[in-house]
Amino acid sequence: MNPHSPLSERDFESRASASFATPAPERKNIVTDAIVRTMRLAPVVIVLTLVVGGSMAAARSLPQASGRWELVVLGIAQDAGIPQLGCDQELCRSIREGKRKPERVASLGLVNRALGLSYLFDATPDVVSQLGSLNGGKPPSAVFLTHGHIGHYTGLMYFGRESIDAKAVPVYGTDRMSAFLKANGPWSLLVSRANIDVRVLTPDQPVAFEDGIRVTALVVPHRDEFTDTVGYLIEHGARRALFIPDIDQWSKWTRSIRGLVDTVDLAFLDGTFASATELPGRSTADIPHPLIPATRELLKGSRSAVWFIHINHTNRELGARDVARDGARFPF
User: Fold this and answer.
1) Could you give the C-alpha distances from 278 to 176, 275, 296, 313, 317, in angstroms and in order?
2) C-alpha 205, offset from chain centre
3) What is the DSSP string of 85-134?
4) Euclidean distance between the first and final Cα of the chain, in Å?
5) Partners of 311 in the β-ladder
6) Could you report the per-residue pLDDT of 171-205, keeping only the tens digit for each?
7) Which of 26, 148, 205, 316 is most buried, by the most CB atoms less than 10 A from its CB?
């Protein structure tokens, strides 16, 4: 199948789970073996239950397993979402007419329901519905911001007094990102009222969180009018994921994107445009991004599962098999 051909729901689910899934024959054998072992052990379990008796209450107090972590795609669109204002193409019209669903702004979540932990990468204008998808609509355990463009931090407003009036939600960003929030309203009000607790990340320095989660900020070249811009390396044990929704060009980066992608299991990368001429009356040189076909060629044969996000409404690749889909979940 060509990488730019449309992907059915079944094919998408298959590709999304391929990185960490147990092969079907193995799953069948695992289930069969488990049933046989259970039948053989049943008499032993009954005897132990009778002998141990009251020790069951004590067993309940033992620490529980950490449960499963999942990366969740919470949106795939460029900052302004899909449809955008002023868009009169068929895609936008069909959404306004209710023929297909809108696309939420690009964001990634990391969740462990057993531990009650959830982390949000970028606070978009769609953050209310995105947190609903991630954790049932509660403030996250922490937010990681990439930069100061409208689709990446303005969702913080929903943590304020006019909404949930949150209590000290940890918000991580670079020194410039943090200083911007503290010095400019209305974000400074969130800081002074302790709705958010702004914490500075040092690029290239991993920060450890509960259950072995590690997050590292990686500075990337982008239009840094108010803040600098980062992507994130997310790690849990041997598993690694890369989140870079915005970058000017891979060639401008001091790192090798191919070299970095080859070290991770999942890569969620800037796929804003497919063509340099797709914006009517505007030049993509004014808002540079790597083009999806060029990135595909650059990463051809990589060991990583590469997913494009941050898709503009003009992008003809929306729906391609390597464009992420909102709601996709990846065991992590």
Assistant:
1) 33, 5, 18, 10, 11
2) 20
3) TT--SHHHHHHHTTSS--BPBPEEEEEETTTTEEEEES--TTHHHHHHHH
4) 26
5) 77
6) 999 999 999 999 999 999 999 999 999 999 999 99
7) 148
